[in-house]
């Protein structure tokens, strides 16, 4: 994703005389950022995400800087004439992958989300949770520049929910952008770079404690990697400081609320970094904090 996706004075309504679902929306989604959208049911969150994903066109205003986008809805149409593996392989070839590469990638993503056991089962026979794993896998298959998640965690088991959070960290660390809605307020808590709230058809930036990451409790994450290398600090928007304690060893100071995302980012970096210890600022690590 090389530039911002921008919504300028965007409005959306259904029908010539229908009520405005959204109006006067200004929004910029930058590369490498994680954006959360909040609001009560029926306020237009899903409409906003469909506009971002390019599934709906604005009634007024304009959208510019369209990146390569993937979208995961809350309910994925499972009654498709494919098996999960066949579906992902087919999509991979549409995205420009060779048949061999698409076949391998399909298997890897299904295994990663715990769906390998029913890779050859007709999708019409899958449960809601199993179908949702396929929905997530299809969105991540081609490494999108913008990933749009509309209640995408709904129906996933605990392991798959964790894996999706890891995939979100990977996408932003790689320079992609992620925009998500989720009913669980603890989902990726402390991780978003920006949080917006949809209210009465308008979009408001929410001011919260995480907008000022230097305040509040902080954690020191000590990581170790190859000499001469640097941890992926550019992907850690909440980073307070990074100190090289020894060749190849860094002490990263981050807000406590962001520590899980920081850990995922360094562990999923290529090559991965080893986490030596995690401890509150101004306290000494002990054996229980070592990972």
UniProtKB/TrEMBL annotation:
InterPro entries: AAA+_ATPase (IPR003593), ABC_transporter-like_ATP-bd (IPR003439), ABC_Transporter_VariousFunc (IPR051782), P-loop_NTPase (IPR027417). Keywords: ATP-binding, Nucleotide-binding, Transport. GO terms for molecular function: ATP binding; ATP hydrolysis activity. Residues 5-225 form the ABC transporter domain. It comes from the Bacteria. SMART domains: AAA. It holds the Pfam family ABC_tran. PROSITE patterns: ABC_TRANSPORTER_2. PANTHER family: ABC TRANSPORTER ATP-BINDING PROTEIN ALBC-RELATED (PTHR42939:SF1). This is ABC transporter ATP-binding protein. It comes from Streptomyces guryensis. The lineage of its organism: Bacteria, Bacillati, Actinomycetota, Actinomycetes, Kitasatosporales.
């Amino acid at each position: 994703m090389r530039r911002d996706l921008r919504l300028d004075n965007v409005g959306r309504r259904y029908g010539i005389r229908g009520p405005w679902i959204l109006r006067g929306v200004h929004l910029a989604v930058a590369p490498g950022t994680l954006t959360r959208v909040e609001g009560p049911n029926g306020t237009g969150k899903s409409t906003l995400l469909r506009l971002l994903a390019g599934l709906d066109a604005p009634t007024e205003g304009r959208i510019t800087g369209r990146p390569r986008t993937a979208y995961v809805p809350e309910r994925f149409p499972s009654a498709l004439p494919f098996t999960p593996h066949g579906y992902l392989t087919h999509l991979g070839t549409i995205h420009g992958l060779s048949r061999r590469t698409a076949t391998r990638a399909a298997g890897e993503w299904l295994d990663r989300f715990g769906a390998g056991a029913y890779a050859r089962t007709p999708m019409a026979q899958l449960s809601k949770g199993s179908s949702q794993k396929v929905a997530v896998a299809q969105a991540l298959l081609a490494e999108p520049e913008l990933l749009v998640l509309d209640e995408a965690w709904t129906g996933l088991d605990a392991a798959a929910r964790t894996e999706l959070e890891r995939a979100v960290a990977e996408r932003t660390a790689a320079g992609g952008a992620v925009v998500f809605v989720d009913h669980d307020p603890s989902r990726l808590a402390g991780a978003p770079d920006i949080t917006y709230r949809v209210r009465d058809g308008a979009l408001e930036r929410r001011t919260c404690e995480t907008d000022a990451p230097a305040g509040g409790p902080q954690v020191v994450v000590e990581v170790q990697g190859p000499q001469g290398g640097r941890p992926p600090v550019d992907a850690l928007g909440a980073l307070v400081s990074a100190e090289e304690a020894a060749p190849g060893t860094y002490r990263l100071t981050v807000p406590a609320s962001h520590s899980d995302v920081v850990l995922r980012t360094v562990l999923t970096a290529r090559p991965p970094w080893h986490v030596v210890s995690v401890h509150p600022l101004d306290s000494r690590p002990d054996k229980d904090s070592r990972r």
